[in-house]
Amino acid sequence: MTFCNSTFYLGTSSPEENLSVDCTFRGSMAKVDVQTGAILWQTLTLPDNFGKTREYAGAAIWGSSPAIDIRRNLVYVATGNLYSAPTNVIQCQELENNQNVPTHPDECIEPRNHENSVLAFDISHGNIKMG
């Protein structure tokens, strides 16, 4: 958690990783008002899993404190691995494994999947600006 200009910036994590395929947690970054406790914005690091297991789960925020860049109006964090992924993503990755040529960009990774990433969020609104 990082304090800056009367707000806390904090990332979420979960112990669900050890639960194998029964995970639903998705990482997120939030800006919280210090005085009221109100969440001013919260941005998830994975697509919606609709509370279902065997879908996207994980991509927790790693590290102790988000880095704040006042000049650029950004907050930086890193995310961790997936705890689980949808069947179509797993099948896609199985097809790409053991190929002799690199696959770039990785066609299995959906645009809103920000696992194992360094992200930059807009301080004012929480939009992902880099990642």
Structure description:
- 8% of the residues lie in helices and 37% in strands.
- The protein has one helix at 87-96; strands at residues 2-4, 7-11, 28-33, 39-44, 57-58, 61-69, 74-79, 82-84, 118-122, 128-130.
- It has 131 residues and is mainly beta.
- The chain has one domain: Thrombin, subunit H, CATH 2.40.10.480.
- It has 1 helix and 10 strands, in the order ββββββββαββ.
- The strands form 3 sheets. A 4-stranded antiparallel beta sheet has the order 1-2-3-4, with no helix packed on it. The chain has a 4-stranded antiparallel beta sheet with strand order 6-7-9-10, with no helix packed on it. A two-stranded antiparallel ribbon has the order 5-8.
- It is globular and about 50 Å long.
Structural topology:
Blueprint: E1 2-4, E2 7-11, E3 28-33, E4 39-44, E5 57-58, E6 61-69, E7 74-79, E8 82-84, H1 87-96, E9 118-122, E10 128-130
Antiparallel strand pairs: 1-2, 2-3, 3-4, 5-8, 6-7, 7-9, 9-10
